[in-house]
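The data are quoted verbatim here:
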Amino acid sequence: MKAVGIFGGTFDPVHIGHLRTAVELREHLGLDELRLMPSARPPHREQPGVSAEHRLAMLRLAIASELPFDGLLADDRELRREGLSYTVETLAQLRGEQGDDVALCLCIGMDSLVNLHTWQRWQELSDYAHIVVAARPGWHLPETGPVAEWLAGRCTNDPQLLSQSLSGCVLVESMTLLPVSATQIREDLAAGSSVRYLVPDAVIQYIHQHGLYKQESS
């Protein structure tokens, strides 16, 4: 069975932490493709200061310029949809497109899992996809509360199970998550400091070409 991953975020701007995590997720999980999906209007965080068009263009440049990134795709469906970017709606749309022959894997961070109960229709997420949690070494799952109760009976430690069923499993994958902050990158850009080796060169060139992030200098 084909397996497709979904890795969302604002990508404001995309940086090596995003890209390295995407590469490792695809390799560790044996995904046929991993879709990096910029959020237009995330309901749980501050709205991006840079337009959706710029963030999508930077993501596409990053994937194209930083080889080998076989199997990584930029998916703009949330940018094309009006209103807030609810993950459950994205997964339902993808499931409708992919049918019953493709396993979907929603890739999130441990911080998102802990707060999953604040997401729109969060208990339906596993109806459409597996949940893969990228965690630092030494992680631990929630032990009490609604998310802990929801996790009961869903957890697996076998990545191969993800390609044997369409949805429903939760896998925590220990990864080396690079301590790179998009907020700090934006602050450095506003201050005129170098962000080389934190952001792909093609993206840095795009940022300077379009004068992005200068507005945050105030």
